[in-house]
Amino acid sequence: MSFDTLTDLNWLAAIVAALAYFAIGAVWYAPPVFGRAWMAAGGMTEEQTGDGPGAAIFAVPLIGSVLSAISLGMLAAASDTDTASEGLLLGIVVAIGFALSIALVTATFESTKPQPMVWGALTAGYHIVGTIVAGAIIGGWQ
Predict the structure, then answer these.
(1) What's the pLDDT tens digit per position in 90-136?
(2) pLDDT of res. 50
(3) What is the pTM for the complete model shown?
(4) How distant is the alpha carbon of residue 32 from its chain centre?
(5) Which of 21, 28, 59, 86 could hold 130 in an S-S bridge, CB 3.0 to 4.6 Å?
(6) Radius of gyration of the chain from Cα atoms?
(7) Rounded to 5 degrees, what are φ and ψ at 69?
(8) CA 39 to CA 7: how far, in whole Å?
């Protein structure tokens, strides 16, 4: 694989996959879904967050979603992934191999959080779902 795969990248698919990944995060971390549990596991309260974060805080997750989708697109091109089911499988492999393992290793060392493994599992869950959906979109759009 080389950076030449960027020229073969379906940029529209990558952008749509990135937006889907980002939107999943908006739902995932909403207080009625997993937001309250994630905050409690991390030692935060809704009172501490006040009116919630400003719009600028969403720039980093959006950039991360774009970078993840581009990387998945490059892996899809390099592995000849060209169907939604192959993209789904690619998303599962990447999600387990990277998202799950990184989130759980990070959680292991989050000693300042009241429930670091719950926090890590909720974080990993978001990235697993986001990566799988992004993989399916990219694979199906090749």
Answers:
(1) 999 999 999 999 999 999 999 899 999 999 999 999 999 999 999 99
(2) 61
(3) 0.91
(4) 19
(5) 21
(6) 16
(7) -65, -40
(8) 41
3-state secondary structure of 3: coil
Residue 69's nearest CA partner among 90, 97, 83, 55 is 90
- Those residues whose C-beta lies under 8 Å from the C-beta of residue 52, and which sit 6 or more positions away, are none
How far apart are the two ends of the chain, measured CA to CA in Å? 17
Q: Is 33 exposed, middle or buried (0-12, 13-18, 19+ CB in 10 A)?
A: middle
Structure tokens at 85: 């089911």
| CB contact at 8 A, 100 and 128 | yes
Number of other residues whose CB lies within 10 A of the CB of residue 52: 10
Q: Which residues contact 29 (CB under 8 A, 6 or more apart)?
A: 35, 38, 126
